Each structure stands twice: as C-alpha cells, then as structure tokens.
Automatic annotation (TrEMBL):
This is Multicopper oxidase CueO. GO terms for molecular function: copper ion binding; oxidoreductase activity. It comes from Nonomuraea gerenzanensis. It holds the Pfam family Cu-oxidase_2. Residues 29-48 are annotated as: Disordered. It is an enzyme of class 1 (oxidoreductase). Residues 1-20 form the signal peptide. Monomer. It catalyses: 4 Cu(+) + O2 + 4 H(+) = 4 Cu(2+) + 2 H2O. Belongs to the multicopper oxidase family. Its EC number is 1.16.3.4. InterPro entries: Cu-oxidase-like_N, Cu-oxidase_2nd, Cu-oxidase_C, Cu-oxidase_fam, Cu_oxidase_Cu_BS, Cupredoxin, TAT_signal. Residues 85-200, 255-315, 375-489 form the Plastocyanin-like domain.
Length: 491
C-alpha cells in the first residue's frame, strides 16, 4: 500500500498530488463503518509525517475552561455582546507562544451562555486583515444572521448577529464561515462555545454550575517554533491533540458527577474516544438532550459534532486518574483530587422525542471528491452561491438520503469519510445503510458522519425561516473545495 500510494502522490496522475488532501491513511474511525465497507483504517498505508512538531509531555498542563462572557448590556428581552475578531498569541504548548486568530483574544473564544427564548445580539468587529463572518452552528436563525459564505465582514467593519434562541437547550458553537477561508480561519482559532440554557432542562437536576464543563477537542500541526501550520493538502498530519486549547492537559475534578459538553472543532479529524477508568453516559447530541441517557463506551465525533456526557467519578479513589483516549492517543486526563457533595442526577427520561410531521418528499444527495480537478462535490457540482440546489417548504420535513461514494479515491485504494451538516434545519438519523443508528445518535442532530460507501437517511425538519441556507461536508477542507450546496426555503 505504501509504495502504491506514494507512487500516486509522487507522480503519475496529473492530479496525483491532489490526492493528498483526500486520502486518509491512519485515523479513520474503525468501528462505525459496516463491515462490507472497504476499510480506510490502514496502518500499513501510512505515509510517515514529514513534520511532527514539538514533543508534548502528556498531562503536564492544566486544562482551562473557556471564560463565559458577561453581556455588556441587557435589555428586557436581549443580551448584548461585542467581540472583536483579532490576532493574538496562545500557549497551546507550555511556554510556547503561538500566533492564532481569536474571538476576543482567546484561542477558544469566550463561551456565550444564552437562555432559551431570550435573544442574543453580538457585534463582531473584524480586526483581521481579511474577510471573516460568523455562523452559529446548530442555531435556528434568520438567513441574514446565519453567516452565509459570501455574506462577510470586511476588514475594519463590524456586524451584528441576532440569535433568537427559540430552540431547546443545547451545546452549540460559533465559528467562521467565510467563503473558501472557513477551513483555515477555524483551524487558526475562530471557534467558541455557545450554550443555550433551558428551564425544562434545569429542572432535571443534571450536573450544573462548575460541574458543567464545555470541552473543545481538536488537532493541530505546529512547527518547531510553535507556529500553526495549515496544510489543506495534508489534513491528516495534525498530530497535536488539544483540549480547550492545551495539548493533552489534565483537569482536576471532584469525586462526583460532571457534565462534559464535548465538541469536535477540528476541521477534519474524526475523534473516536474511549474513557479509561469510568463509565460515560451520553445525555445529549448536537442540538439537545437525547430522549433517555445512553451508556456508551466509545464516542465517535466528526468535525462539528457534539455530545454531552455525564461521568461519575464517585468510585474513583482520591488521587486516581481517568483518561480520555482517542485512537491516535491520549487527549485529556481527569485527576480526582477531592470529595464534593453531589445532589445532581441523571433522570431515566430526559425529553420526549416528539414525532416529526410526515415527510413531504425524498431527495438524494451524493458526496464525492474529484481529485483530478481538486474539487469536492455534492451531486457532481461544486458550490455556487448563484445556484439554488433545492427549494424546500418552510415548516415541513423531508427525507434526505445522503451517500458517500468515496470508497476508492482516484484509484488509490483508499476511501475517505465525509460528514454532512445542515444549516437551520435539524434532523433525525433514520438509518445507516438501512440499519437503525446506535442510541447515542437517536436525538436531534445537525451533523452526521458518513463512512466511505455508506448511505444515511435523515428526516430533516426544515425550520420556520425563509431564504437561502447552505448544507455541506463539515470537513472544512472539503467544503472550501466546493462540497456544499444551498436550499432556498419558501412559503
Ligand atoms: Cu459549523 Cu456551515 O458550519
Ligand atoms: Cu452550521
Ligand atoms: Cu468531506
């Protein structure tokens, strides 16, 4: 495999070099594909990393929790914020200053805590030398406030985004979405948490306050001087694993239950997480609570996906450790250092899954790469802001069958996973290749992983706004190369 892939990459095909952005050599999740899928998990095919970056001693720094921003003004129905989009430095590695792009100076932007049905108005001032814009991932917002790719904030300009928060409690996040720049802008640090608090959820008694901790997981490639290297041609070579912006940190916890809100903000990597030393209970997926808690021993999160889990450290002795491991190595270690009272609980029922209205039509979407022309396609087309790919009716549901046909990209013998993300609309995953999804995917979602050769069927709840919204592969190197389409929502 190695020599075959190298041959492809080094010469031969006109588009040979273009295979690099597409071919996954070592980090594919191994358990999510059905067995008949050609498998991408091929260690023998790994091309050795050219640049590996500075060595990291795991668990030598503390994981911070991104600071929650306090609104600068509060009116009767709106919380008002102002954030600049600016360059800054961050210590991703201990003692090394890395130039990054930030919201408000922080590599993991400030956490915005919104309340259901209370509006948020955030003005973003673009202090960068290039375009940016802001998208609230998972948010149901008007088209003009959604961060449409060509609807950007020019350097020096500012822009106010209004978020109604008329949706159930959830772990959302905000990030850049500027046309063709989204992968690099997000990679360099334009990402932050946006949490919607919900009275109905609060009454459940889940761990809250200091025991409700958002954790942003992602990867990076750093050079020896500590600079972030963005190489869209080799997104699999990003060996440094970050939790809340620190490489493989530790986090001190009490011997009790915690809620962790996990987000994969990588632009490409699929995390496949296990917990060593305690049980994980998944309580929420992308856009809110699951119907009931699900014990899980493995959590697969592709770019943009979230999972809220509860971990109970009560049975871990003081001084004990619980490690979060990815298939690529340890990500984070919880160090149990003290006792604490725990009145929180995980009720057997979290929220009823209301039946979605009957779907009004079916559609088929096919995701594929075109390595020869270095393009990424949906239904054989690259994104064109001037073309509407589908018209959909507001307030309806539809069945979308989404297939990843990339089982053998450019004849390389390698398959490539994709995922699929819808703006505005949320969906239920009906099946994967005709089989019921695991219970952890049994709630409302906005992003779903699709393995090479796999077909997912989604029941898409279009939503109540009008206008144009995009959907795309959230492996942002792919969306930046065109794997994106748009729907127009009409009356
Ligand atoms: Cu987080 Cu268009 O996406
Ligand atoms: Cu989104
Ligand atoms: Cu993709």
């Amino acid at each position: 495999m190695l020599s075959r892939r190298r041959l492809l990459v080094l010469g031969g095909l006109t588009g040979g070099a273009a295979l690099a952005p597409f071919v996954q050599s070592e980090l594919a999740p191994s358990g999510t594909a059905s067995t008949h899928h050609p498998h991408v998990h091929d260690h023998a095919g790994r091309v050795p990393a050219v640049r590996s970056g500075p060595a990291v001693t795991p668990f030598s720094v503390r994981m911070p929790v991104p600071a929650t921003r306090v609104p600068s003004v509060q009116t009767g129905d709106t919380d008002i914020y102002r954030l600049s989009v600016q360059q800054a430095t961050a210590q991703l590695l201990p003692g090394v200053n890395t130039p990054v792009l930030t919201y408000g100076g922080a590599f993991c932007g400030p956490t915005i805590r919104a309340r259901r049905n209370r509006r948020t108005l955030i003005t973003f001032d673009n202090k960068l030398g290039h375009d940016t814009n802001v998208h609230l991932h998972g948010g149901r917002v008007a088209a003009a406030h959604d961060g449409y790719p060509t609807d950007v904030i020019a350097p020096g300009a500012g822009r106010a985004y209004l978020y109604p928060n008329a949706q159930p409690g959830a772990t959302l996040w905000y990030h850049d979405h500027a046309h063709h720049l989204e992968a690099e802008n997000v990679y360099r640090g334009l990402h932050g948490f946006y949490l919607i608090d919900d009275e109905a959820e609060r009454r459940l008694g889940l761990p809250s306050g200091g025991y409700d901790v958002p954790i942003m997981l992602r990867d990076a490639l750093l050079d020896d001087a500590g600079n972030l290297i963005f190489d869209p041609a080799d997104p699999y070579n990003r060996p440094t694993l970050l939790a809340n912006g620190k490489a493989q940190p530790y986090f001190e916890v009490a011997a009790r239950k915690y809620r962790f809100r996990l987000l994969n903000s990588s632009t490409h990597r699929v995390f496949e997480l296990t917990l060593d030393g305690a049980q994980m209970t998944q309580i929420a997926t992308d856009v809110g609570l699951l119907p009931a808690p699900v014990p899980v021993d493995r959590l697969v999160l592709s770019s943009g996906e979230r999972a809220d889990i509860v971990v109970d450290f009560a049975k871990v002795p003081l001084g004990g450790h619980v490690t979060v491991n990815d298939v690529a190595g340890p990500v984070l270690r919880f160090d149990v250092v003290r006792q604490a009272a725990d009145r929180s609980r995980v009720p057997a029922l979290l929220r009823p899954l209301a039946p979605a209205p009957v779907a009004v039509r079916d559609r088929k979407l096919v995701l594929s790469l075109d390595p020869v022309n270095i393009r990424a396609l949906i239904n054989d087309q690259v994104f064109d802001p001037a073309r509407v790919d589908m018209q959909v009716k507001r307030g309806t549901t539809e069945i979308w069958e989404v297939t990843n046909t990339d089982t053998n990209v450019g004849g390389s013998g390698f398959g490539v996973p994709h995922n699929f993300h819808t703006h505005l609309s949320h969906f239920l995953l009906l099946d994967r290749d005709g089989k019921a999804p695991p219970p952890g995917e049994g709630g409302w979602k906005d992003t779903v992983l699709i393995q090479p050769g796999e077909t997912v069927r989604l029941q898409v709840d279009i939503g109540s706004h009008l206008g144009r919204y995009v959907y795309h592969c959230h492996m942002l190197e792919h969306s930046a190369l065109g794997m994106m389409g748009q729907m127009e929502i009409v009356n």
